[in-house]
Amino acid sequence: MQPIRRLFQSRSLHKPSPGTAIISYILLGIWAFIVLFPLYWLVVTSLKLPIQVIEGPFYLPWIDFDPSTHAWTYIFVDVWNDTVRPYINTIIVAIVSSVLALLFGGSAAYGLTRFTYRPRLAAIFTFLGLLVLSIVAINLGLDWRLALVVAVAVFLLLLQPISKRFQRSLGNNDIAFWLISQRILPPVAVVIPIYVLFQRMGLLDTLTALIVTYMAVNLPIVVWLMRDYFQSIPLELEESAKVDGASPYRVFWSITLPLAVPGMVATFLFVLVFAWNEYLLALFLSTADAQTMPLLVAAQNATRGPQWWYMSVLILIMIIPVIILAIVLERFISRGLLVGAVKG
Amino acid sequence: MRSGGRPEGTLQGPDASQTRRSRSLRERIGSWFDRNAGNVFLLPTFLIVLLLSIFPFLVSAYLSLSRIRFVRGGFEITFVGLRNYRKLIKGSEKRHFLGVFGDFSLISWLILIVFVALLGYALWRYLRSGHRISAAGVIYRIITFSILSYGMWYLLKTLSSGGRPGTLAVTFIYVFLGIGCQYLLGLGLALLTTQRLVGRRFFRVVFLLPMMITPVGIAYTFRMLTDTDKGPINPIWKLLGLAEVSWVTSPWGARWAIMIGDIWQWTPFMFIVLLAAIEGLPEELFEAAHVDGASRWQIFWNITLPQLVPVSVTVVLIRMIEAFKIVDLPNVLTNGGPGTATESLTLHSFFTWRALDLGGSAAIAYMLLIVSLFVGISYANLLQQRAQR
Fold it and tell me: DSSP readout, B145-174?
């Protein structure tokens, strides 16, 4: 009797009364309209001739104005090569940087939840001091390769004696906080040095530069989300595998990772969307060869004024893959799989 | 936090008992990797972040203390100390960065007094709470509260009549007003779509979309929508008799246009996280309340909302960190105008960078960093700990 009653009640619990349902539908409808109207406007604009855009708002194709596919043919036929290259660039950069961020960030998050780290404060300060010194030295005209070698050598020499002498150390939470806090850095504060760094390495306007930068920018968020997720995975299985003599990598790869797949997919999607849409860093780091889609969209605001019709087409073809991602992400939430990742 | 103990002690396999001589090189490398597994897991990330965050961070700090002049064939850097910062706070950039101070009206005084009284009450409660009071905690709170009061005073001063908010105040407006609206809307939508309604999955997918569209694209889309000649909203606006409110020429109109774009894009983030959190709440609680005859409103107010506090604090913190960096929307939508009414700190820094004043640009970026760090940390300390208790 009891289970049947519980089943019945839990079903009636979330089921709204007809009045509530109508009000809910109205509110949901309003917000859906607010969300969809800009997208509808993009579609409509992409079907307009320039003159139809300039002469004022026309709302409905076939009624207000005659739709034309000129913008679509221009983007897909006339400048096909200029469209497809940034598109492929964006796909490569987004996927590769997200996979790498997930790989490194995921393993770091795993390490932070399963091992104890005791970095010595002294070692950190030695490192920072040497870094500042070598930056000053490079500014004073020292060759940067030489400075690097000297700094690394001095660091390795000093590491042992200094960390023996000063015993204070940090813990896992400090490392995690430090990694996550990197997200606070505004990109404008770091983009100029990164630009100079890649320029020195001759990597400016390459996909590698974008991949590495996006990966670094995304690492904190991956560590943050995956750490919470790994914490929610019970330890018993791992421990029994360790008793059976499996190496830590084997435990990570064959036991924890399969359990963490839902959290990883959710994190991956978050990161992927960021890399897919990023604009400011790409603006600094790429010009022609490594151009990404957001840059191409912005490039439609040319000397002749914004080319709204081309821009709409480009924004729309950027949105299409993202709709699939939204559907996948929604599936994860409704199955309750994202909960571990957002518990905070 | 759970931890698996130190790797040296627990992770040695059976091969450790074998004699040293019989181990091949490969085994020895393997066992070295096993012993240092913790470092192997963490070090790559550590090094990448070090190289691409800490190094640029320090270089920027140095840039913000120097003046960079472009000369033929390169540039020369002269160390000028805190001059770039002084220029922002006292010198020629003060009106741009801090804004113009107006006169306090009665309402501003009231708001300030209420705000300070609230902070004082929080301090008093902390002192009365008895356990775990430390001198450092008291000093820390007094400093934080006085800076917060000063920040409030500054905001009110620039927002009152005769004043004009600088880029710092504008950024605060975007962060607080924008996030407030996003949170309320996101929570409402999440509550609506957790009901058993037909078609709720469709609504959820639709509501997620804006978050996943490129900010530049959104900025241009909203520029199209808010165009006073060709935009689709203006005729409707006129029909409602609101044509006098222009979002191009009035500072607050322009700011609201940007905030609406921001709200449109980021409400989904609040929505998705709160939705996942609500879906994850244990069913038993609701059942018990339901059996006891609690009303819908009581269930929401006494059960759902308290359970959501930790997630809410975290998600607001995440959004706050990101919102301080707002740049795409004001850049494309209004280009910072009218005047500097919609210019955020990142945009200010970007404009300064474009004017080739690299030192000044880095100084603004650092002010942004300091402000957002302070707000983020005091928020986390004062609210998160209370929420977790």
Answer: HHHHHHHHHHHHHHHSTT-EE-HHHHHHHH
Contact call for residues A280 and A191 (beta carbons, < 8 A): yes
Optimal mutation site among A330, A331, A332, A339, interface B, most CBs of chain B within 10 A: A330
Crossing angle of the two packed helices B37-49 and A207-231, in degrees rounded to 10? 130
**CB-based contact B272 A333, cutoff 8 Å:** yes
Helix (H, G, I), strand (E, B) or coil at B49: helix
- Judged by CB atoms closer than 8 Å, whether chains meet at B205 and A247 is answered as no
pLDDT at B161 over 50: yes
Q: Given an 8 Å threshold on Cβ–Cβ distance, is A192 in contact with B362?
A: yes
Q: How many helices (H) and strands (E) does chain B have?
A: 20, 4
| Cβ within 8 Å, pair A35-B11 | no
Residues B163-388: name the CATH superfamily: MetI-like (1.10.3720.10)
Measure in Å the smallest separation between the Cα of B204 and chain A Cα atoms. 7
CA atoms within 13 A on the CB side of B378: 17
In chain A, whose CA is at the least distance from the CA of B279? A336
What is the per-residue pLDDT for B21?
53
Instruction: Dump pLDDT digits (tens) for A38-82.
Output: 999 999 888 888 888 777 777 788 887 888 888 898 888 888 888
Mean of pLDDT values over A226-251: 82
Nearest Cβ partner for B369 among A185, A235, A297: A185
B82-118 pLDDT, tens digit per residue, is 888 888 888 888 888 888 888 878 888 888 899 889 8
B78 within 8 A of B85, measured Cβ to Cβ = no
State yes or no: pLDDT of B329 exceeds 90.
Answer: no
- The predicted structure's pLDDT at residue A13: 52
Name every residue whose Cβ is closer than 8 Å to that of residue A183 and which is 6 or more positions away in sequence. A220, A221, A224, B321
Q: Is pLDDT at A222 greater than 70 in this prediction?
A: yes
d(CA A69, nearest CA chain B) in Å? 19
Kindly state the average pLDDT of the residues A242-257: 84
| Element holding B265 (H helix, E strand) | helix B251-279
Question: Considering only alpha carbons, which residue of chain A is nearest residue B190?
Answer: A28
Cβ-defined contact of A104 to B48 (cutoff 8 Å): yes
Give percent above pLDDT 70 in chain B. Answer: 88
Identify the CATH class of A75-116+198-342: mainly alpha
Q: Where are the domains of chain B?
A: 102-162, 163-388
SS3 state of residue B20: coil
User: Would the CB atoms of B225 and A38 count as touching at under 8 Å?
Assistant: yes
